[in-house]
Amino acid sequence: MTATIGKITYTTANVDMEAFHAEFDRALERVRARTGALHPLFIDDQPISAPRNALVDRSPIDTSLVLGTFSAAGPEHVDRAVRSAERAQGPWDRLGWGARVAILRRAAELIRERRFDLAALMSLEVGKNRMESIGDAEEAADLIDYYASQMEDANGFVRPMHNLTPIERNTDVQRPYGVFACIAPFNFPLALAAGMSSAALIAGNAVVFKPAEDTCWTGLELYRIYRDAGVPAGVFNFLTGHRDDIGDALWQHPGVDGVVFTGSREVGMRIFHGLSGRFVKPCLMELGGKNATIVMPSADLDGAAEGVMRSAFGLQNQKCSATSRVYVHRDVLTPFLDRLLSRTAAITIGDPTRRDVWFGPVINERSVARYLGVVEEARNTGTILTGGKRLAGPEFDRGWYVAPTIARLPLTSRLFFEEFFVPFLAVGEVESLDQAVAETNLAEYGLTAGLFSTRQDEIDRFLETVEAGICYVNKRSGATTGAWPGSQPFCGWKGSGSTGKGGCGPYYLQQFMREQSRTIITGG
Question: Has residue 127 got a pLDDT over 50?
Answer without folding.
Answer: yes
